[in-house]
Amino acid sequence: MKATNKKSFSETFKKEWMFHVMLLPAMILLLVFAYFPMVGIVISFQDFVPSGGIGQFFHSKWIGFKNFEYIFGLQQFRQVLINTLVIAVWKIITLIIAPLCLALMLNEVRQKAFKKTVQTVIYVPYFLSWVILGGILVDLLSPTNGIVNKVIVALGGQPIYFLGDNKYIRGVMVISNIWKEIGYNTVIYLAALMGIDQSLYEASAIDGAGRIKQLFHITIPGIMPMILLTTILGLGNVLNAGFDQVLNLYSPITYEKADIIDTFVYRIGLNQLQYSVSTAIGLFKSAVSFILISISFGLAHKYAHYEIF
Amino acid sequence: MHKNKIKISPSRRVFIVVNTILLTFVMLASLFPILNILALSFSSNSAAAAGWVTVFPVDFTLDSYKYILENPAFFRAFGISVIRVILGSAISLSVCLLAAYSMSQSDLNFHARKVYRWIFLITMIFNGGMIPTFMVIKMVGVYNTIWALVLPTAVQTFNIILMQNFFRGLPYALTESAMLDGANHFQILAKIILPVSKPSLATVGLFTIVGHWNSWFDGMIYMSDSSKYPLQTFLRNIIQSVDTSKLDLSTVDAMNKISQRTVTAAQIFIAIIPIMIIYPFLQRYFITGMTLGSVKE
Lengths: 309, 297
Prior knowledge:
The complex is a heterodimer.
Chain A: H1 2-39, E1 46-47, E2 61-62, H2 66-73, H3 75-107, H4 112-123, H5 130-140, H6 147-154, H7 169-194, H8 198-206, H9 211-235, H10 243-249, H11 255-258, H12 261-271, H13 275-304, E3 306-307
Antiparallel strand pairs in A: 1-2
Chain B: H1 10-41, H2 45-50, H3 63-69, H4 72-103, H5 113-125, H6 130-139, H7 147-150, H8 157-169, H9 173-180, H10 185-196, H11 198-214, H12 217-222, H13 231-245, H14 251-293, E1 295-296
Helix pairs in contact in B: 1-14, 3-14, 4-8, 4-11, 4-13, 9-10, 11-14, 13-14
């Protein structure tokens, strides 16, 4: 019995070894740059002192959950958690509603050239980095010479320092995020809209249904699965408030309302060099995210038959 | 107009007009900030300081671009970005292509596939986080080299999934006869699969290129010499220094920075140009990418 198993194993390997070879470069890279850092998570249970060398993940003193106790005792961390949730939830909601409205509006356009032009233009920011978009926003919203404040002043208002005022910073984050990301979801919804059976509209028109009735009884139900799917998958992102964006738009004055988990991890770790504390916060985020992603994938699989890999 | 067979009701007509106006507004709002930066880059310092540069340059000048031409630091950063795009995309595409071909096999043809699937999936959900990754980069000796920008992101699981799905969509007959003729998998991949995989390769390739061109954070933390910064990291430094200077507005300093403003605008615009050049292709493969990425069964 054992012998046949072994034989079939070696036969299998003879036939399939090339697949292993093809996967080897990817495996080496993942081992070094993905799995090896995962081992490094252990430093969140240590009082880490850099020592250099490969073994340094295991050289420091183990202190159990002390780092976690320290984090949860921090007033600042609670604020960071709130900021993250508030900004992320607003982003998720706006990135469902705004692209949906845009897709519905575009779907009503009959002139192909106009439709194409609008689409071409609104996708542009999606392909630009937050460094670029941040640089543009810093200039555009500048209190001294930005065009937005020039208009405000011309209309008789006081200049507003959008990026330096805790009242406005979250709004700037959410709105500028719509600007960058709206194209992506709009494409998804437009595709879903095109998938709706056109005969439904004809049939309902014969029955005397108006445009509004059609919208609520055919169009919206028709793309509901896609709306549900994007909502569910968004759930896995409630702790991702947008590191690239925030790091380019916030400043010490706006930490109070705009500092999020990822930027906090960055500052604690690489500016203050508290490696263990920073990693502990990262681990906390990963753990919660993992649960959320599992739930959202489970739901997506159940309700939308969505599957990955 | 009279050729239209469908009668348009007055309320419908009003809707079409309002809809068109709204969409035009959205389009202009989306485009305005970019046009504004472009106009600023071609305006004189004094015009920029006086304000009211909108979408047309005021007091047209090429001074900002001339200033950049004399600035070797900008070109060095630009060059580093070009190198990382070429090197990074070539490595990433090769690695992902090979992996995707193996992963596109059925579980029966490739018994260990399930194991590899988990190895990939885990990296999508979990990562070591910023500090452990940073420490590993230092440990393996790629810190402060171009490899730190190229290797850590080379394996893109999402791209592997995308190509895998594409390969699975190819007709089986394509490879069957080659198999019977005794070709091995490397030959099949190179001679049969690759030539017909242009759409998926183009999609993945374009997104990899954009990803490399746009990334800046890795340059910021993995490069200790600012002379090794890629363009986006270099730009971020400039923009952030302008930004923080506004916090303490001593007049002299402010005047100094204002003259920097048009130069920064020009640098931002130059960084956008490569994206604009490949934009028509990006748009074409945007949707291909998304439809390939999500399998619904």
